[in-house]
Amino acid sequence: MFQRIRCLLPRFRLYSTVGQVSETVLPQLHPLLIQRAVFLQNEHKELSKKLDSYDPELQIQFDRISQIMDKYEKFISLSGEISELSKIKDHELIEDAKVEIQSLVPQLQELCNELKNKLLPPVKYAECKTMVELRPGVGGNEASLFTEDLLQMYVNFAMFKNWKYKIVSTGKTSSGFINEAILSIDEPGSYDILRHESGVHRVQRVPETEAKGRIHTSTAAVVILPKLSDGNEQSLRNDELQFKPGEVRIDTMRASGKGGQHVNTTDSAVRLVHIPTGIIVTQQDERSQPQNKAKAFAILRSRLAERDRIEELEKQKNLRTSQVKTTDRSDKIRTYNYPQNRITDHRCGYSLHDIDGCMKGEKLQDIINKVKEVEYKERMDEMVSAQSTGETVEG
What we know:
21% strand; 3-stranded antiparallel beta sheet; PCRF; Pep_chain_release_fac_I_sf; alpha+beta; 13 strands; 3 domains; Double Stranded RNA Binding Domain; 8-stranded mixed beta sheet; protein biosynthesis
């Protein structure tokens, strides 16, 4: 089937009872994505041969490609059905055919949108769970309050998606304002959805403490990391084995802040220092040192994984002759303007006039989808460029 249909007709003609011709543009896939589908079909066949004996990693890969192939088969089948309906010229059936086509085209569009991203070469760690790190930027206490608002937004988004989540840790200043928060989202594939949230988020609003009603501008930094470990005592041993002897320095100390007598009498806090990169992770939220250590190692692994992914991305970009702005990293990615009830994402130019809906988690996906549309265009340009230079597209 995949070899038979290489491209789709961009439009079909449906003759009405009065002889007029109605033309509708059909959703279609880029020829390079059709090529990717054929490549994945062959890979799917090879994997099925290798799964005579159970292999967890191969099974995950096989299942992922199976889901893509199922959607692609539905896309081809639905396209063929619409094509057949469009050929009807019987005056008694043509109106029914038009109604049927109108109901099928939105389904085809939805499948096309899903396949546009799924048929692109996979993003590294796309299938992973997620860790979200948030820190206040410029703006003093108002920046801390905005950071807390963003944390709640991602919690609300996880709840809206029915994803399991947990606030791993929160750090606060002596005044009680948040200075760091880490959220764990335990939904496979959530990293691919949330990775575009990394960057500086800016808010423009009148703080509650502002007596004269002046609008203040504050920022918060969001970092989205792939979650590679469960961060518990059971996963700790495996996490430690990922590092060479002497690569990570482990310091223990007494936790600071609120927590009663236990905080002041037990060396439960853990600080990890990754010697090659200088990355430091400190955890003190748990009462037990092993629990804090497990959390710290999980965070360290996530930060290193994201660091490696970004370095790899930069190397790929440096190899290209044309500099393409990426949606992955940007200083100021989004502005939340409360007086105008507007959220603007600067990477795609999209504005959502519903701050409350976004902060409740219900409309955040709308913004993410618009950013993904920009990424799709960028990555398609990369594939076209790669083909023109003779590079392979089977990433």
